[in-house]
Amino acid sequence: MGRPLEYNATVVGRTDLTDTLATFLIQPDQAPRRRPWFIAGQYCLLGLNNTEKPFLRSVRRAMSIASAPECDGPLEFYVRYVVKPTSQNPLTHLLWKLRAGDRIYVGAKVAGAFTINFLAADQQDVCKALARKDDDKFADIAWEPGPLGHPRIAGAVGYLDCTLHSLLPGGAHVIFTGFVSAAESNDAPPLIFHRGKFATA
Ligand SMILES: Cc1cc2nc3c(=O)[nH]c(=O)nc-3n(C[C@H](O)[C@H](O)[C@H](O)COP(=O)(O)OP(=O)(O)OC[C@H]3O[C@@H](n4cnc5c(N)ncnc54)[C@H](O)[C@@H]3O)c2cc1C
Q1: Percent of the chain residues topping a pLDDT of 90
Q2: What residue ranges in the chain does DSSP mark as E strands?
Q3: CA distance 153 to 142
């Protein structure tokens, strides 16, 4: 059960392709100024309050953005109605009651992309700062946003901008796999962490 959502977008179109597959065109009230503000393969959260059963409050689910990043119009989503949902408050059952003109919540951040920074041999302090459990790890680190808007750390040896492909369970960790959309590197010696010690190659 989620907190009540403040709606920030309007459903401007809906096409039922089958009984259980529909496209929804959703226009956010305020799209970010940066263009394009998402890239192919990203997703965002769609959310609705359950007004018929207010005790169930709200539900948010990830949905892949199907529209092209260069199109400035509404966001398009292909949504499958889940006949046997596992939650008490399935989003798709609320979504199927919506028509053009209805209001909806769209998460402000699109996700599904990440940037990998390869640190240089002289960036041990940066590595230690990022390893801390701190709310603002980037406070003392010089960086600028790359093409995805994610941090590219100044002085790093290289960067990989990726769109998310899958999340795999890896013991106590989650392994992210991605498609590389941009890559850069220089000849500085890299920072390596091996057997509990910093090293370089
Ligand atoms: C990154 C990401 C992107 C996603 N993009 C889309 C998208 O573009 N379109 C879309 O329809 N869904 C998408 N989903 C799934 C979506 O987030 C919800 O899980 C789905 O809509 C069911 O939500 P619900 O609240 O109605 O059902 P819930 O009560 O949450 O029930 C979930 C159950 O439905 C099953 N389920 C989830 N999706 C489907 C499906 N498509 N068909 C059949 N069973 C399903 C789950 O395995 C689970 O058993 C995406 C999920 C993720 C993590």
Answers
A1: 61
A2: 9-18, 21-28, 43-49, 58-64, 75-80, 103-106, 113-118, 143-145, 151-153, 158-170, 173-185, 191-194, 197-200
A3: 6
Topology annotation, domain 9-106: Elongation Factor Tu (Ef-tu); domain 3 (2.40.30)
Q: Taking the complete model, does pTM exceed 0.90, yes or no?
A: no
The verdict on the CB of residue 65 being under 6 Å from ligand 1 is: no
Q: Give the tokens for residue 185.
A: 């590197």
Any ligand 1 atom below 6 A from CB of 166: no
What superfamily does domain 113-200 belong to in CATH? Electron Transport, Fmn-binding Protein; Chain A (2.30.110.10)
Residues of the chain with CATH 2.40.30.10: 9-106
The pLDDT tens digits for 18-72 are 999 999 999 999 877 667 777 777 788 999 999 999 999 999 998 989 998 888 7
What pairs with residue 170 in β-bridges?
A: 173
Confidence at 169, pLDDT banded by 50, 70, 90: confident
Q: Is the CB of 63 inside a 6 Å radius of any atom of ligand 1?
A: yes
**Residue 97: left (phi > 0), alpha (psi -120 to 50), or beta?**
alpha
Q: Where in the chain is the domain with CATH 2.30.110.10?
A: 113-200
Pocket residue to mutate for ligand 1, from 24, 46, 79, 80, most atoms within 8 A of Cβ = 80
